[in-house]
Amino acid sequence: MTHQCCLYPCAGKRSTSFWAGLEADEIAGILQQVSTFTRTFSQGVSIESDNEDDYLMYLLEGHVSVSVALENGKFIPLRHIHTGEVFGVSSGSEINGTLAFSAESISTVQFIHKPLFLGVLTEHPQLLANYLAFMNHRISYLLNKVILFSIQNNRQRIACFFLGEMKQQQENLLTVDLSKTCLLECLGMSRSSFYRELNALTAAGAIHPVGRKQYQCNTAILNEVLSRDP
């Protein structure tokens, strides 16, 4: 059985910037139109506005984690947000839980009034293109997360993760900027299972740790692992 590999952006490069291709004065004009304000959050603090459904959030500085908060009090980690990313586009009303954003370090967030922002999209073709690219990125992320969790074999799941990161980062030398705890939760594995399969992939020459959170990957071997019958 051959699995289609996932593009799993939880650990890779940030998604398309809303402001790519726009001049500084044009960006300043847009922000002035959409009634923004800025807040700074301490590490560990939840990031929210008085009415979060009315705002997009733009991370000016810091790191933010995104999780699904379930009604039973548990949290399912989704991904990390880096400086220059927009988040909070989806309200989460379609899921059995709510999206929760938490500052992983001191973080400065700019709040953008969503109705006003959507209203100016047609006036700025490049901004509209960036917005559509961003939404396409989010859809791809969810589809590829489904693909990842459809793989029951842990070794193949790790191979899928690294192949997806290679495609996302466009590098054979990967930087995985997640904590081990977050990575294990994202992959749905115990620590012992993860290291057992990672060691097996290392012994096979598929993955070679070369530094803190850096891995040299062999595409051919990883694809071979992924294509084997479980």
UniProtKB/TrEMBL annotation:
State the name under which the record lists this protein. cAMP-binding domain of CRP or a regulatory subunit of cAMP-dependent protein kinases
Annotated signal peptide: none
Q: What is the lineage of its organism?
A: Bacteria, Bacillati, Bacillota, Clostridia, Eubacteriales
